[in-house]
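Example record

One chain of 102 residues, shown exactly as stored in the release files.
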Amino acid sequence: MEIENKIMNPSTKSLSQAARDAIVVQSACNLVAVSKAFAEAMSVLSKESLRLGLDKQWINTHPITILFVSQIAHLSESHAAFDFLDYNRAFEACEYLSQNNV
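Predicted structure tokens for this chain:
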């Protein structure tokens, strides 16, 4: 429940808030809440990609996406092989984004 309370309303969410959500869900244990937050973050990334004129590849490989997908794989016990270096880079990028109002 604590994780769910930290996730903000998607209609007003910024890229930095979506990055914060991606970091917060790394300690989540509720797959439903993580999936809902992921859908909201993808909406933010989609709007941002349209604004910047970027393609779906940008969304699919964005650090926010990587963190959410990693946690979903962990919670679903899919044992997907994630590159630890990619995960660390994504986490650092989300920390940067979350601290800079973008």
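Notes: The CA atoms of residues 27 and 97 lie 19 Å apart.
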